[in-house]
Amino acid sequence: MPSIETGGGRIDYTxxxxxxxxxxxxxxxxxxxxxxxWRYQIPSLIQAGHRVIGVDLPGHGPAPDLPHGTTMxxxxxxxxxxxxxxxxxxxxxxxxxxxxxxxxxxxxxHGTGRLAAAVVVDQTPRMLNTPDWTYGFYGYxxxxxxxxxxxxxxATGHGTPIWKRGMRLVRLLAAMGRVDRTLSPPELALxxxxxxxxxxxxxxxxxxxxxxxxxxxSEFWPSAHAAAAAALxxxxxxxxxxxxxxxxxxxxxxxxxxxVAEFLDxxx
Length: 268
Description:
Helices cover 32% and strands 19% of the residues. The mean pLDDT is 92. With 268 residues, the chain is an alpha/beta fold.
């Protein structure tokens, strides 16, 4: 597995498909998840003619543990280092969960000059609920902003219980290898930094074609976040995947693959 050494740690990545393909798709996994969480999307993207790059930023997959002091800006810098090292032009970024907002952190810091489009899978651009944004993490508001993610990602009581998901759970475990673990202090610090961010201004100011995908049964936030985020974007679209939780791309891969293929056909 090739890697890139940056000031903030090592980035591992794997390239799939024809290296001569006209377009490259970069896959950014969710919080602490491995690049293998995209295993059900890679064949579909290759079949559509894309070169696919599965990325493990520090703290993901086989990459080293997350360094202390990692923030969303750090993640933007890691992604920028990958884009520069591989000299990607006209790339498509697809991010799930925190990987989705890593896209906006990158756009905020480095612009869209190397990008053709983006897909964000079940990630609200603002996790904090406020009077003007009611699509944040369930229970996370001004009263809980400093304590909510102190030790864990809290259970919300929303969505289908994981033990009742049948094949959805089988797919999730096959892609992730696990569904939960204890978070390290650097991971908790990054989670809190991520949770306090508001990427709505970045979305409003970017003309990047973007598809927001939501799981109808997301454990974390209302699925209406996708349409609300798309309404902010000058060139935005949205879709809700039925009977899918937060791990939408793993639980309902066929539906996600179809939505992504249709979007990229028109956007790239």
